[in-house]
Fold these 3 entries.
Entry 1:
Amino acid sequence: MSRYDDIIDLSKVEPPKLIDEKEHTQIYEEIKAEYQLKWPEFEDESEFEPVRAHLHVDAQMGYQVRARINTAAKAALLASATGTDLDAKGDGRSTPRKLIKAGEDGAAYIMEADEDYRDRIRIAPESWSTAGAEGAYEYWAKSVPGVRDARAYSPTPCVVEIYVAPDDLSTPADQTLLDAVSEAVCARIRRPIGDRVTVKAAEVLNTPVIVTLYVLAGPSVDLLKDKAAMQATEYLLSRQKIWKSLYRSKLDGSVAVAGVEYAKTSLDDDVLVGKHQIIWASSLTVNVEVINA
């Protein structure tokens, strides 16, 4: 199996809807119409009509049941499961969530983020290969505590290079982490003995980003800034994977929220990376300038 064959991009999978989602008022009107069919003499003239109150209760309960069914459907799929539901999906593929940082002095434990964990669960079947597929190498490398991302690459037959990026991208992977990955894919327990594997630190491209939003005067400037920052952060985090380039057009699109006249970013062009590189958006600064209409 290879990522280039039939692996689905889970970010593009629409959440399932086992039943149609309807608003409370829509459900209420349907129940009311059914009630009037059975009791034509019913007249809904007062806001405090007792029957009307009961119908509203029924509608609210129906709304909650529909929402619960669809929520349960989302929890059942890898593409949309989160939290403990995602943990259950991982257990089904013998892939537990990684501990990122142990709690000290009463502090909470920091566990692997849902999106990183989802990616490891997705490629878990690759680890069942006994032929040294690239996905198998990447699965076992990513399963090492302290590894954010890993990429396997074979420049020539029987030669494998694994590039590793640490959780903390302020510095490249240190030798201790590289040794741990080497042990995780060693010929003694896991890889084909004919493969010659080298584990290397991925080059970290420090890419601070500055965004300037140009907006008209109004009371919602801070809201626009917060929303643009949230969307830009989401896009930048999605780029913090080995061999994931940062595209200026997509960054511009992420900050083009409703209410912003136009925006400028500090990127002069796309930041293109190779198989051995990873982008680190070390900082995101969002400035706002109010312009005259």
Entry 2:
Amino acid sequence: MVLNLTYSEYKAIVEFSPNMIWRSGLDANCDYFNETWLNFTGKKLNEEVGAGWLTRVHPDDMNFCMKTYLESFQIRKAFEMEYRLMRHDGLCVGLMIEGFHLRIRTENLPDKSVVVSM
């Protein structure tokens, strides 16, 4: 059985997923964070886009995090990594994330990469 979901249904699934989901273009600049991410960090979308999210990464994890993240973009390969991210109350919480490159061919949208934090 094939179930075709509407855009609104997909958006609701992503926004209300218990997983933190974010997306970036192939330039590695983040351009989307779901509500779960924003609630966790206590930040607004405009504060997280680009490299804004990096201000929440624990300083001891920054080099490893950036190395893993950027290398995956260079080779367009899925990746996994663990790092600590500061929650809205200042507590650093360990995350295990999986990232993958999602290629969607449309006339008006460039390829994107999607990351899911577990």
Entry 3:
Amino acid sequence: MRIRTKRVIHVKVKPKVEQLRIISYLFSPAEQIHNFKSKGSDFVFTGIVEEIGTVVSIRKGVKSSSLTLQGNHIFEDMQIGDSIAVNGVCLTVTGKTANTFTADVMAETLRRSSLGSLSKGSQVNMERAMAANGRFGGHIVSGHIDGTGEIESFVREDNAVWVTIKTSTKLLKYIIEKGSIAIDGISLTVAYVDNRCFKVSLIPHTAGNTTLLTKKAGDIVNLENDIVGKYIDKLLHFEDSESGEEMLQSDERISMEFLAKNGFI
């Protein structure tokens, strides 16, 4: 299993108890998340977009690129090395001026996300990593994109706008009705899902303070599934990646007795 803070760290853990403890710790009340952040991890976002920024320039490499973006509000306390979510993608500030910052985008990020389709003048959603004393207004967003989706339609219903997005079954397996999903870094509630697409409904505030309604049918958006579902899926289907040997023995399966024995209930 991989756990990421500001560096990628490979950690092999016990298949049951240790993974449950990680899940219990990560998804406990906000006070524990704040405590977690105060110990040096500042990669957590909430999906509440702080401002819409503009792409000033793009310097493309062979398989990577460097973005320079302009904004206003998020520059108040920005430092070199800070994490900024750009259309939901966690990027590291490598340079800054009074109202611009530069970030490198590696090949893996370009493959997984829609950042490669940006051009000079494109508008993007931007959010700083959550402050330790901040409010948890959305849901846990890591900034690590799972994949992309394609906008199928926009349908207005009174003061709201329904947005239909189709995506792969690999992502749809983690999308549940009334669950959370990050679309281009926006924390939204899933209002409908089937085996080929899902729908969200935007209130006027979200519509006016993010870029989603500036897009059109056929445009690609970044998607990040709710991290809770991904951890649980990994826990329930954990295998030894080296030998392929099934690690979930009959006496290790999750039950009320197992949870009680290991202090979870």
